[in-house]
Fold this protein.
Amino acid sequence: MNHYVCVTCGAQFAASETPPANCPICNDERQYLGQKGQQWTTLETLRQDHHNVVSAVADNLTGIMTEPKVAIGQQAHLIATPAGNVLWNCISYVDDATVAAVNGLGGLAAIAISHPHFYTGMVEWSRAFGGVPIYLHTDDRQWVMRPDETVHLWEGETLDVLPGSGLTLIRCGGHFPGSSVLLWPEGAAGKGALLTGDTIMVVPDRRWVSFMYSYPNLIPLDAAAVAQIVTAVEPYQYDRIYGSWPDSIVDTDARAAVRRSAERYIARIGHAVVSANN
């Protein structure tokens, strides 16, 4: 029995004798099936020639990503708080060296994930650290390919991830119904930081962000969905955004960047108005 891993998106599946017939995540129009068709690997196979790079991003923030690239190549973030460390988003690959590196930074108390494209090896990661809880929004429960007792489905619009950590999950919707971001009030030297997935995407011009239903297939969101995202994060103070790839950072004035980016986006696709109080 193997926990097969989809080569295209990196999702790890429930144990089976043979690979699954297909990957529902990649068959969805927000993702894609690779040009070579459905392909599978396993964590054991990846361990033959892959490793994780663990590097400091900022004070109390560490990036973790795999080389050579696995699936879409995102970076997970480890946030250090007085209540324990939280892993934001996930990657497919984990090994003994990674566990040792994370334990050297204070270990892991919880995992929180923005949306299904980053579920990847979440159960493997949880079990590598003693079965720490994984927090996913219940609206995206159908995309959990490896069900496990460590997966905790949360409901509503916000969740305090770890008591005493100050970290808050905020459901924004948009990219997926349960797509969420993570507010880190102590980030950016106390000015506040928002860690995002694909719901609020940092773009090459770091003064801006963007919003899409599907990034690989270039399917936009409608105006109402973009307005909903802005409304969800508007009550919170943050000066910086950390995206899901290295150096994808809106370093300052990020709250205003989200608002003006939404206004520009909606103006291009037409209809609806983004209005928010300062």
In short: The mean pLDDT is 96.
